[in-house]
Each structure stands twice: as C-alpha cells, then as structure tokens.
C-alpha cells in the first residue's frame, strides 16, 4: 500500500510540476524589471499610525519587513512625532494606516513614483513608494487553517500589509499560490506553523521568484513549507480554498468529519519550495486528539506523533508550490469517540548543496476539518 501511494503521488507531482507556470508579476522597461532605486530601500514607519511598538498593527509591519528583508534590500526606521498625513513626492518611503475613504474603499494601496521609461536606453526605477493600509482591518495573526474570505477576517491586516509592501518594491499581481494574488475574491494563502505564536503570513515561493527577478541576482534560500490552502482552478475558477476540501466535488469538508475504519478521506496537501533548486522531502498526514489547549494541539513534523494516515515523498520544483490530492484510509487503531485534528507534517531532505533548511516552524500545518471516528459498536469494526 505504501509503495502504491508513493507511485500515485509521484505521478501527480510530475503532472503538477509540468503545469506550474510562474505567475509572479512585475513591470518592465526596455525588457528590464523595474526595481527600487534606493539600495537599500529605507521605510519610514509613521508614528501617528504606529506609536507603540507592541501593537498588532506594528507587528504587521514587522512581519512584512522581516519577510521582505529575507529576499530584498530593505531597512526601516520608526518615526517620531510624525504628522498623520504623508507626502507622496518627498522621496521618503512611508508606511501609514488610513481611513478607507482615503484609498477609495480598498483594503490597501501603494502610491508609487517611477523614473521615466521613454527612450530606448531608459531604465525605469521605483523612486518612491508610500504604503497605505486600511486602519480598521484585523491585525492579529490569522489561524492558518482557515483562508480569509471577508474583509473582517482575522489576519487580513497582516496580509494586506505584506501584499502592499510587495507592491512597493515592484511586485505586481499573481494568479498563482502567492501573497500577491489580486483582491478579496482571489484570497491569499497562509503558511503553516508549528506554534500559535509563529508568523503565518509569509511570502510564498512565487512571491520570492518575483523578487529574485526584480533584483536580478540569484541567491538561494533553501526552505520548504506547507500550507492548509490550495488554489482551486477547476471550472474556470482561480480561488484559494482550504485543503480540507473533497477533491471529487470541490466542496469543503465538514468541520468535523465522522468516519469509520477503512473509510477513505480525500483531501489536498500543499508543499512549497522557496529554493532556486528542486527540493525534496517526506510529507506525513496524521490525526491527533484535540485537547483545546493551543500549545498541546500545535502541529509537529516528528514521525511518532499521532496516528499516521499516510506518508509520501514530495518533490517540488524551484520557486514552486504544489497541491496534490491524497486519499488516506482510516486505520482501526485510531482513537475513537474523540475529536481529532488532521495535520500535515513535512521533513525536508538534507540538501546535497547549499545550506540546511532555513525555517522549520513552517513545516507543519493543521487542516480546517477534524475527524471523529465512531466506536467499534457503531462501525462494526
Ligand atoms: Ca513619501
Ligand atoms: Ca521550512
Ligand atoms: Zn495588490
């Protein structure tokens, strides 16, 4: 059975690899990507909006900047005594929270100034970007199991901050598995995390590819990650959905799925790779008793945790995220009459070149639906 599953997974993996088109976007001038002129970019974090260093709003800025700093040349400074309005032509790259009326009802808006792209030898650059994010969004970290579907969703402010700051250094919209997806209807993915405190709003492989193209120098970041979301593209759609979706119907599974041993559960798993090289690893789907205590219910990549439902080899191309369908069979040894969480844990293989895995906290995620396996009496086994 293990071998059969492995083969099935590889076939899916290859098909998905072949169809993965890089969708990251950026502007070009005479064939050259438009990149920021300042090197490094220095953001000015407006103290009228971010007076206190400990607020969720400030954490959203820190999350966005630390994401960007990993892949792009950026720095930041906190302002002091700033006015509550900003100037779009003062050569200062500002970050500010605004009322929605200021940005035409958008969740966020980045005002950019470019040098000209008129003559064949012009090289257009981003001279200044001012990032504006709607002040009423939720700036807490999201629960990564559930994709945000409405403006008021938990974590939407953190996502909009990172998305807009992506625009500020030259990224345009993507149709792929990316933070740069366009708008509320397309939704954006969260990244898995091994603990409730970890960052869950991260640049994906596709976003990193765009940044690498903008800056024009290759630099490897050996990191794989998992997510509880995937891009549903069937029937002409292109929408981010939770991996806890029935692959046959495209409909979300119930919050708790009642099952018996030998029943088969179909779902998606999502694995991404921010490296410029193909990366491989072992993916494990397991179920474990939910206690209601966030730290005890945290996800784990360790092989001995919970009841294993399936294990596969994953092979993910450069700067790619892929989401194969998997079917797992409920074993009779699984705990009965208790709510179980369903998790994906990833153990990246050791790389033959380059550095070891950069982050391990993004190698595990809990899916949106849990399991409830009925008693031996009820199931007849
Ligand atoms: Ca400015
Ligand atoms: Ca990782
Ligand atoms: Zn946008």
UniProtKB/TrEMBL annotation:
Domain of life: Bacteria
Domain Peptidase M10 metallopeptidase: 136-216
Enzyme class: hydrolase
Gene3D superfamilies associated with the record: Collagenase (Catalytic Domain)
SUPFAM superfamilies: Metalloproteases ('zincins'), catalytic domain
Key words of the record: Hydrolase, Metal-binding, Metalloprotease, Protease, Signal, Zinc
InterPro entries associated with the record: MetalloPept_cat_dom_sf, Pept_M10_metallopeptidase
Organism the protein comes from: Paraburkholderia dipogonis
Designated name of the protein: Matrixin family metalloprotease
Keyword field contains Transmembrane: no
One GO MF term attached to the UniProt entry: metallopeptidase activity
UniProt-listed Enzyme Commission number(s): 3.4.24.-
Signal peptide: 1-23
């Amino acid at each position: 059975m293990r071998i059969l599953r492995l083969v099935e997974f590889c076939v899916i993996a290859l098909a998905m690899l072949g169809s993965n088109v890089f969708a990251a976007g950026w502007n070009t001038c005479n064939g050259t990507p438009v990149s920021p002129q300042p090197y490094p970019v220095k953001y000015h974090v407006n103290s009228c909006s971010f007076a206190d260093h400990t607020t969720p709003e400030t954490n959203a800025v820190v999350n966005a900047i630390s994401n960007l700093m990993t892949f792009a040349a950026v720095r930041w400074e906190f302002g002091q005594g700033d006015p509550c309005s900003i100037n779009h032509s003062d050569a200062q790259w500002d970050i500010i929270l605004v009322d929605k009326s200021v940005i035409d009802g958008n969740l966020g808006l980045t005002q950019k100034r470019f040098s000209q792209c008129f003559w064949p030898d012009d090289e257009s650059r981003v001279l200044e970007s001012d990032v504006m994010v709607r002040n009423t969004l939720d700036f807490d970290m999201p629960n990564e199991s559930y994709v945000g579907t409405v403006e008021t969703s938990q974590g939407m402010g953190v996502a909009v901050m990172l998305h807009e700051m992506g625009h500020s250094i030259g990224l345009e919209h993507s149709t792929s598995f990316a933070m740069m997806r366009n708008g509320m209807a397309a939704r954006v993915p969260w990244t898995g995390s091994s603990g409730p405190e970890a960052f869950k709003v991260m640049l994906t492989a596709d976003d990193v590819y765009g940044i690498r193209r903008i800056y024009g120098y290759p630099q490897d970041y050996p990191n794989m990650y998992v997510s509880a979301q995937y891009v549903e593209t069937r029937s002409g759609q292109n929408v981010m959905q939770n991996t806890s979706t029935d692959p046959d119907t495209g409909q979300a599974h119930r919050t708790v799925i009642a099952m018996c041993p030998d029943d088969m559960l179909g779902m998606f798993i999502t694995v991404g790779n921010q490296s410029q090289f193909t990366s491989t690893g072992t993916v494990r789907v397991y179920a474990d008793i939910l206690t209601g205590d966030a730290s005890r219910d945290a996800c784990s990549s360790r092989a001995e945790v919970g009841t294993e439902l399936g294990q596969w080899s994953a092979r993910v191309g450069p700067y790619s995220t892929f989401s194969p369908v998997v079917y797992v069979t409920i074993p009779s040894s699984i705990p009965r009459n208790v709510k179980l969480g369903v998790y994906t844990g990833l153990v990246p293989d050791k790389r033959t070149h380059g550095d070891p895995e950069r982050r391990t906290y993004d190698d595990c995620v809990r899916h949106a639906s849990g399991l409830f396996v009925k008693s031996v009496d009820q199931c007849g086994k």
